[in-house]
Every structure is written in structure tokens, then in C-alpha cells.
Amino acid sequence: MGSIGQRHLKNLKKINKNYKFFALRKKKNSPELDLTNKVIGEKFRAFNNNVTEISEKVSKKLKFHSVFICNPSSLHVKTSLTYIRNCKNLFIEKPLSNNLKNIKKLLQKIKLNKINCAVGYQLRYHPILQKIKKLIETKKLGEIKSAYLRNGYYLPYHHKYEDYKKGYAANKKLGGGVILCFIHEIDYANYLFERPLYMSCDGGKKSKLKIDVEDHAKMIIDYKNTKKNFKVKIDIDFIEKIEKRFCKIIFEKGVIYWNLKKDYLNINFKNKSKIQIKSSFKNRNDLFFKEMKEVMRDFENKKEPKSNLKNGITSLQLAMAAKESMRKNKPIKIKDFL
Q: How far is it, in rounded angstroms, from Cα 297 to Cα 43?
């Protein structure tokens, strides 16, 4: 069980001690990790974590309240389609896939079987992101003029307990590459700005990292506004050794700056007054815990989660448009692409 699967497992145990857990695992050499991703055991052992391991044959005969898909991105859709008839609720880790193949089929099957589906974009549950959304909707700072989203972090530092060359992020066949790995930026841009018109992307591989995927990408997305369209720049890479992650939005009447690393929001007004909002989260896992708590509550109440199949598909489509733009070296009209 990989890092994100172990994290969800630990958080679900905190939410409800009466849950029973089953695991279908192909690889069984992952180390056991704590919630800070520190290695606490040579191997993750299901028995020691009150998890019952089952075979693929047995898993297809059982009925589950919820199924969590936490394998490599390239296998998400295939695995989801396999278990749609075995569950009431489905949680798919981000990104939904590494291509658009069988996405329509997945959507049709989920609707047909009346499955409640969540996708693992935990930032949608962040109070600061929701605060920014409210500032945009109420137009307290006027119309948006432009925005810049940055996420850069050296790939070998992501999971220090493993050889980065073997991880999914470094391998094309597993669904790797910086565009899909850092797709959170695309997703929360869509959440904030809503109506993308064009995608332009310049990127590729320029580092000495031993990977067969792109290690940097600079995207420009044209978004529709009530008065005037505006551009959102998204700059992501696997190269930056000092982690940088922030969001800056320029409005008619001020500027906001969200530091995702230090978890605070600055709101700067044109009259030079300033407000700083600090996150109430004490550690990185608090957001994942909040996500999981809300997802399970929505599953129980048969309510569509904040991060759902619809935004999962839209974000994947934009990521694929970015890759297409990078290949063809031209802007992609989103309406035509979708």
C-alpha cells in the first residue's frame, strides 16, 4: 500500500473505529509510513494494521460500502470500472487517469449504477481556497485582471524513502509527469475561475533527472469573465530544490497572495490596508483528514462530494489539453478539445 493509501487508511480509522478494511494489493514491498511520510516499518503489513488482504477473485464477489482506488494513475479507470457493481461509493485518487480513454464509459457506468463518486483533490476542502472563492464571487476586490499559480519541488525530495526513478511520477506508463502529478493547480484554478477558453502550454524535460516524462510546464489558460477575459499562468516543475507553492490573483481593487507552503492568505487592498488569514491546520495531514471526513459524511448522506467526478473529468481534460498544446506548440481551444 502506497503513501496516499496508507494516509487514507489511517484517517478513516480515526473517523470511525467500526469500519472494516479490505485491501487488494499487487505490490507488497512498500514501507510502512506515519502521517508525516516517515518510515516506521520496513514493509506495510496489512495484518498489523487491522486490514484483511483479499485476492482479486475474492474482491469481485464482495459488496463494499466504499471502494478506494489508490493505485498508479494509469490504472485508475480500469480498476474503477471493475468495482462499480461492487460498491455504493467510489473514491478515486487524483488524477482520474493519464488519458481520456474510457472516461465517458466510466461516467455512464457510474450514472447507471447510481454510484456516489469522489475524486482526491483535497485542496477543494481547504478553508482558504473557499475564502478566495467567496472574494471572487462577491467581487469585493472587483473583477480579476490576472492570476499566477506556482508549484515547484524537486522530484527526488517528494518521497525520500523510495528511489524516485521507480515512482509513478517519473514514469510515463504509470501516468507520471509534472502536469498530472501537480494537477491540483489546474483543478483549483478551475474551481476558482470556472470557464476556461484556451490552453497554451510550453514544457518538456530539461533537467538531468532520470525520468521519461516532462519535468516542467508553463501553462496559460484564458478564462471568461463578465467584463473582460483574463489569463491565468500556471508554472510547475520537478526541478526547484527549495519548494515553492503559491497563488497570486490581481484584481481591480487589490491583490491576494496564498502561500500554500506556509498556509496563510494575504489580502492587500488598493488603499494599502492589509488582512492576513492564517490556516487553522496544525499539520499537512489535517487537510487530508478534513477531506476524508467530509467525503464519508457525503457518502452516508448520499450527497455529491465537493470534489467529484465532474471536476475530476474537467481537470483531466485540461491537463490533456496542456499536453496537446505542448506537443503541437499552439494554443488549444477548450471547447473544441472537450
A: 31
